[in-house]
TrEMBL record:
This is Predicted Zn-dependent peptidase. The keyword Zinc applies. It comes from Flavobacterium haoranii. Residues 59-201 form the Peptidase M16 N-terminal domain. Keywords: Hydrolase, Metalloprotease, Protease, Zinc. Transmembrane segments: none annotated. The keyword Hydrolase applies.
Length: 464
């Protein structure tokens, strides 16, 4: 995932969904870039127990007694890609709606209960999944388990809640998208890069779709996707396993199994010829030039190689693109590259905001020059070792808090289909060779396989 997520706050939020929101100090200190690989492995081994309830809910338990804190989280396998083209934004809408209240938690009381018991909670949505979690003092584990079971078993989905959250989501869209510089970059890219896959719309969706939806449609969406056999429950932190299992069985076992979710498979035609797209944004004065390439699922080895390529090109001020375009040639105010990989497909971005009158052709020419080097030459041993050090540190940091571990356990189980990747994915990165970097650059980053997006300041309308 990208490290240079500094285009704007909302874009950073969207692309860096794997970045963890920590409500406590890290329990493990991140090791420096010079830490020996062997030491990292032993220090970061994550132990866990997993099992299934009869209703299909997958349960994962991870004990960490370093602090009297416990995280209870539920990840549902439902995101923006599970919506209909004329009803976008439903998954994100439910991220808000399912805090409205339940049969046993009155409307408006959810956050009060959490706060009164020393806890914090939040939720987030992507194209692929929705994630809810609570962070409590460890003596409130039963409360957290009960509340998440209430959200699943007894949600109250009525018109007043829908109307209230509709206004909340509209305000969020105005703040984070419509009135934010470069706020529609994601929309501009997605609607042009995908023609048949639901990735072609944004997670926040279109407000007219939410306005047009009936209460029955919202209730049907909940019934279809918010079921135990479409979710994983993770409990991580300081707790007694036998007691946790007893409470999980007490509160979750009675929830009936839902009809298994049937998903369509969407296959995009390969991009075989470069094409251009344009978007005008009234909130900006400096254009942004973006090249985009379609890439494979985040579950593939190639996606990990592309992660390394993006880091090589633009991670930090010593990276190839930043040093060249910003520091040396003074052609750009900002430049970045990242592989936004998802469950089904990915999109590889290279973007830049030009300095002064630097032309688009000049900017993209510099992009191509660095990519051509990757395609024709092996990166240096020094740069290769720098990449290995960086990904070792990323691995350590991703498991540096109990909340981060809970998120990773849920993600690897639900989206990757291999929960033990929490311990083994770093081995994939370690095994990537300089030769593979060259091969993957040739496979996916060809000029004939990309879109060039001109993200421009809006032209003033004539007063006549």
């Amino acid at each position: 995932m990208p490290e240079n997520c500094n285009i704007s706050t909302n874009i950073a939020t969207y692309f860096c969904y794997k970045t963890k929101i920590n409500f406590m100090k890290n329990f493990l200190m991140a090791l420096s870039a010079t830490t020996l690989i062997g030491n990292v492995t032993s220090a970061q081994q994550v132990t866990f127990e997993e099992y299934d309830l009869p209703n299909g809910l997958h349960v994962v338990l991870h004990q960490d007694n370093s602090a009297p804190v416990v995280i209870t989280s539920v990840m549902y396998h439902v995101g923006a890609k599970d919506e209909q083209p004329d009803r976008t934004g439903f998954a994100h809408f439910f991220e808000h709606l399912l805090f409205e209240g339940t049969k046993n938690i009155e409307r408006g009381e959810w956050f009060k209960i959490v706060t009164a018991n020393g806890g914090q909670n939040n939720a987030n949505t992507t194209d692929d999944r929705t994630y809810y979690y609570e962070v409590f003092p460890s003596n409130n584990l039963e409360l957290a388990i009960w509340m998440e079971s209430e959200r699943l078993m007894h949600p109250v989905i009525n018109q007043i809640g829908v109307d209230t959250q509709n206004e909340v989501v509209k305000e969020e869209k105005r703040l984070r998208v419509d009135n934010q510089p470069y706020g529609n970059l994601i929309k501009a890219v997605k609607q042009n890069m995908f023609k048949v896959h639901p990735y072609r719309w944004t997670t926040i969706g279109e407000m007219e779709h939410l306005d047009a939806a009936t209460l029955e449609e919202f209730q049907a969406f909940n019934k279809k996707f918010y079921i135990p056999n479409n979710a994983v429950l993770v409990v991580a932190g300081q707790f007694d396993k036998s007691q946790a299992k007893e409470w999980i069985n007490k509160y979750f076992s009675a929830i009936p199994k839902g009809t298994p979710v049937s998903r369509k498979t969407y296959e995009e035609k390969p991009i075989t010829e470069s094409f251009k797209a344009t978007w005008e944004d009234p909130n900006i004065q400096i254009p942004m030039y973006v090249t985009c390439y379609r890439t494979p699922s985040m579950k593939t080895r190639d996606a990990r190689v592309l992660d390394m390529i993006s880091s090589y090109l633009s991670d930090g001020k010593s990276s190839k693109l930043y040093k060249k375009l910003v520091d040396e040639k003074k052609m750009a105010l900002q430049v970045g590259a990242f592989n936004y990989s998802q469950e089904d497909y990915g999109t590889y971005f290279i973007y830049s905001m030009p300095m002064g009158n630097t032309s688009e052709d000049a900017i993209i020419g510099q992009f191509d020059e660095e990519i051509t080097k990757l395609q024709t030459e092996l990166i240096s041993e020094k740069d290769y070792q720098k990449l290995q050090n960086k990904f070792e540190n990323d691995y350590v940091n991703s498991n540096a808090s109990v909340e981060g571990i809970a998120n990773n356990l849920a993600t690897y189980y639900l989206l990757y289909g291999d929960i033990n990747l929490i311990n083994t994915e770093i081995n994939i990165y370690r095994s990537i060779t300089r030769e593979e970097i060259k091969e993957v650059a040739n496979k996916y980053l060809k000029p004939s396989q990309r879109m060039i997006l001109d993200y421009l300041p809006a032209q003033e309308k004539s007063q006549n």
